[in-house]
Amino acid sequence: MKKRQKILFYILIIVSVLFLLSCLSDLSKVKRDKENYQELNEGWHIEINDQVYENVALDEFRFHPVNKGDVIRMKCTLPSRAYVDNPVIKFYSILSDVEIRYNNQIYYRYGKEQLEKGQLLGYGYHFIHIPQYYAGAEVEIILHISENDAFSSFKVPEIYNSDMVLRDFVIQNRVPLAVNMFLILFGVLVVVVSLVFVITYHNFWKLVCVGFFSLGIGCWSLCNYDLIILFTYNLRVKAYLEYGALYIAPLFVLLYFWGDAFVTRNKKVHGAYLGLLLVQAVFDVTAFTLQFTNVRHFPTLLRIQHLILLFIAGGVVALTIYDLVKKQLTNKVLILGFTMLMIIGLYDMAHFSFVKYCIASKNVQYSSILCVGALIFVLSQLADFGVSIGHIFLQGARTKLLEHMAYVDEMTGLVNRRRCEEIWDSLDQSDCDYGIFAFDLNFLKRTNDTKGHMMGDQLIKSLADVLKKVFGSFGEVGRIGGDEYIVFIPDLTGVSIEKLTQQLEHEMEQKNLENPDLNLSAAYGFCRHSDNPDMDARHLYRKADAAMYEMKVAMKSTREI
User: Fold this and answer.
1) What is the pLDDT of residue 67?
2) Which of 98, 276, 287, 510 could form a disulfide with 110 if both were Cys (CB 3.0 to 4.6 A apart)?
3) What is the pLDDT of residue 345?
4) Would you call 257 helix, strand, or coil by DSSP?
């Protein structure tokens, strides 16, 4: 097992490095055809409340973060050369009501009703179709800000060919699209499969956590890259999905570590883990309650979630150090995966804060690579789950083998005397009318003496096969020892003992017809509890054994034995 874990450990390191190199490289970037777009970067007239800025270049423009109630007005004259076919203005808004005027006419409106109701507006791209001959037209954009600390810079608007805008956007983001779609589809598949198995195998709850985490981070990152526009243009749906997934996903990470947190560790570790789990759960309930009651919206709680994530990362680091000191670190692959997720997550939080509060440039826009860390972590979780579930199944197989050796007669496959003792005890607690057969195999000594022990063994096995065939669906068949057998029928409701004994005689005759040298025969006795209500199961067996002995004597008197 240790060798397998080392192999998984090294494979995960290689995968992690390759994914990081892929995502940090420029491979996902493509050159756009300049005939399909025009940037609207220069020459903006901007009013932010009472502040006026003239001839602004948006990629260099930065201002104090705007707050709820602020109003921004932006005006520019479209390029004098209009060469983009099927033009749309591609504009990015953040937590704002958007009104766009084209040549002093209201041309587009988003979010007015939601703003008046105090609802979350969301953020993302707007695609506003404009006339083909747009050269020299005047465009005015009016933004009513709906949240505090909303943004402090603009993404440069573009005039884009509507037939090409989504295609180019997907090509530019093909790597994160592939990773996120894998995480989402994988998460859905794992959740569905694991929920089926978790009813029978409780250890599959870990796989449920893996699936929900993968699904959550995939949805969050799909929204973060604005790739959700492939499925919906609704900015509110995007905001609910993005923040909801981001706030819930850490809960499943913590739940995955539930078993690990309580294995051979002290009460302080247990308390710290339960504290983190409780804080995250309380935050989730509070965040969703505040959002749906419109008291506070998801974006305003992001800093609190970042702080909780820092505590979670610190807790896992402390737990790992504790395991290293105690020399009980067993899931190295999982720790490596979580470390990669933590490093990338910390980088993402720092990058987000740096871009939002420190710089403003079209070349330095926030885009998360957390999906890569999530993919690495999901792979590490799968590796850890595979090792742990394999160990559990191995232990289960060993347990079943030991139980088989302890309770099953090796020659016949019937339960042995030890198991019969337990069945007797269980029948004494039963409220049903049960019955017990006692059997004794005839001719065993004569067969051993005249035909050899191999034929004697065959005789023993033949009666066992007959008893299993006749009584197996009604109860338990056992071998007490030597040539003595027992049948327990725990519930006699609807059972015809006469028909069973007739079938028994028939099956023994069939065995003898198949092998005339076998001469299979048995004496038996039966006793039911309702006829002897004062007897316990052992005494009932003795009475059945006495009836069997009487039958054996009768068979001897007729010279059948």
Assistant:
1) 93
2) 98
3) 65
4) coil
Residue 383 · residue 12 · CB < 8 Å: yes
Per-residue DSSP letter, 156:
P
Angle (nearest 5°) at CA 223 between 221 and 228: 125
> Residue 24's pLDDT is what?
45
CA dihedral sign, ordered 16, 17, 18, 22: positive
The 3-state DSSP class for residue 381 equals: helix
Confidence at residue 28, expressed as pLDDT on a 0 to 100 scale: 43
Q: How buried is 103 (Cβ within 10 angstroms: 0-12 exposed, 13-18 middle, 19+ buried)?
A: middle
- pLDDT for 29: 47
What pLDDT is stored for residue 180 in this prediction? 84
Measured from the Cβ of residue 127, the count of other Cβ atoms closer than 10 Å reads: 15
Residue 461 belongs to what H/E stretch?
helix 453-471
Strand partners, 139: 76, 102
pLDDT computed for residue 315 by the predictor: 76
DSSP string, 186-219: HHHHHHHHHHHHTTT-GGGHHHHHHHHHHHHHHH
Chain-centroid distance of CA 173 in Å reads 26
Low-confidence ranges of the chain (pLDDT < 70): 1-34, 201, 203, 260, 263-265, 320, 322-342, 344-373, 380-405, 559-561
Give the model's pLDDT for residue 382. 65
Q: What is the pLDDT of residue 293?
A: 92
Per the CB < 8 A criterion, the answer to whether 212 and 222 are in contact is: no
Q: How far is it, in rounded angstroms, from Cα 271 to Cα 265?
A: 11
Residue type (1 letter), 41: N
Q: 3-class DSSP state for residue 234? A: coil
**Cβ-based neighbour number of residue 520 at 10 Å:** 22
> Residue 95 class from Cβ within 10 Å (0-12 exposed, 13-18 middle, 19+ buried)?
buried
Long-range contacts of 104-109 (CB under 8 A, 24+ apart): 104/138, 104/140
C-alpha distances (whole Å) from 396 to each of 389, 401, 416, 429 are 10, 9, 21, 28
